[in-house]
Amino acid sequence: MHTMNGTIASFFFGYYTRRSSSLIQTCLYFETYKFPEISATGNNAKLFNSGLMAGDGSGGGGIKLAGTLWDKEPLSLAEKVCESFNGELGIYAFKTLPNSTIQVRIERLTNKFGSPTMEDIEAYSTIYRAKLADPEQAKTIPDNISLEIR
After folding, report:
1. Residue 16: phi, psi to the nearest 5?
2. Which residue in 17, 33, 109, 121 is a FRET match for 131, CA 20 to 30 A apart?
3. Predicted confidence (pLDDT) per residue in 25-82, tens digit
4. In what order do the strands lie in the sheet containing 62-64?
């Protein structure tokens, strides 16, 4: 998890207006936060299992697991798929839902804006779907997974 683990992020918390003689200034202020090191295979299992995840697993980034018996395995596999791209792709957001849905938002780490191409999304999706096939057959994850890659 390149974007979240161990990085420091600034969050916009609001703005205020101040008046200095005849000049009115609008100022933005930010807070910083250092994300903890978290992965599915776990540096700190107590922290990982505590539900302390930054973001919502969607547009806000981060990891949000549904709390099912199967949702940690797809996260681990998603991280392994990223490794196969030699540091070019990472996971921006990962979310599992109780209705057997997995949502993954990837980011291109070699692009300053982080936007993956359609080819990146297609390649990631193909490899990830192939990696999910074995656990689906072994019944360690549901065999009717709905996969959304963005």
Report:
1. -140, 160
2. 109
3. 444 444 444 555 555 554 555 545 544 445 666 667 888 899 999 999 999 999 999 9
4. 62-64, 89-97, 101-108, 146-149
Establish if 113 belongs to a structural domain. yes
Query: What CATH number corresponds to the domain at position 105?
Result: 3.30.300
Task: Tell me the per-residue pLDDT of 23-37, one tens digit each, with 9 for 90 and over.
Answer: 544 444 444 445 555
- Residue 101 CA, distance from chain mean position: 15
**Into how many domains does the chain fold?**
1
**Structural domain includes residue 1:** no
Domain assignment of residue 114, given as a range: 38-149
Helical ranges in 8-103 per DSSP H:
45-49, 72-83
What's the pLDDT at 94?
92
Strand partners, 149: 104
114 is a domain residue = yes
